[in-house]
Amino acid sequence: LGADDATLAGHRGASHSFFTAVLVGVAVAAFARRAGWPFLRTAVAATLAVASHGVLDACGEGGRAIPLLWPLTDERFVSPLRWLPDAPRGMKMFSWSGVFDVVAELVIFSPLAAFALWTRAAPRARARTPAAGVAVRAAPSLARR
Predict the structure, then answer these.
(1) Distances in Å between the alpha carbon of 120 and those of 49, 66, 124, 126?
(2) Three-state DSSP string of 6-55
(3) Residues 89, 90, 96, CA angle at the centre, nearest 5°?
(4) pLDDT score for 58
(5) Percent of the chain scored above 70 by pLDDT?
(6) What is the pTM for the complete model shown?
(7) Cα separation of 44 and 51, whole Å?
């Protein structure tokens, strides 16, 4: 929106703080409650997801430090382990270096995403398959066809 990156309103500013993560988590949980989801579990999951973004941005190779504890302090933090590529923003994302950084992040985070999806899908798949030794009968309307 044109805010200077050096300010709290700029990219990697106050929006990357733990305080903002909690606000977003509570807001998401309030909306999710209307859909019948559990409030506390949804709030914690959304808060952790948003907070992890700030922590991971602090691990970016060329990125700026992050004000993780805003509004308590304006101090910015950076990880001593700078292992994530720092993808360019805007139209530079479509350059070769931007595409390389996106592919590198996909390679880094794909195993974690696959594990998260697999652990959610495995119990559902087991619940749909009949137990061993149990006869499955067709519905009477299907048996006549």
Answers:
(1) 17, 32, 7, 11
(2) CCCCCCCCHHHCHHHHHHHHHHHHHHHHHCCCCHHHHHHHHHHHHHHHHH
(3) 75
(4) 92
(5) 77
(6) 0.70
(7) 10
Return the bridge partners of 136, or none.
Answer: none
Structure tokens at 53: 């973004």
Q: CB 16: neighbour CB atoms within 10 A?
A: 25
How does pLDDT run across 90-133, given as a tens digit for each residue?
888 899 989 998 899 899 989 988 887 887 666 666 666 655 55
Q: 64: closest CA among 90, 91, 82, 51?
A: 82
Three-class DSSP category at 69: coil
Give pLDDT tens digits for 61-88.
Answer: 876 789 999 999 999 999 998 888 887 8
Rounded to the nearest 10 degrees, how much is the dihedral formed by the CA atoms of 124, 119, 50, 110? -120
Distance of alpha carbon 96 from alpha carbon 43, whole angstroms: 38
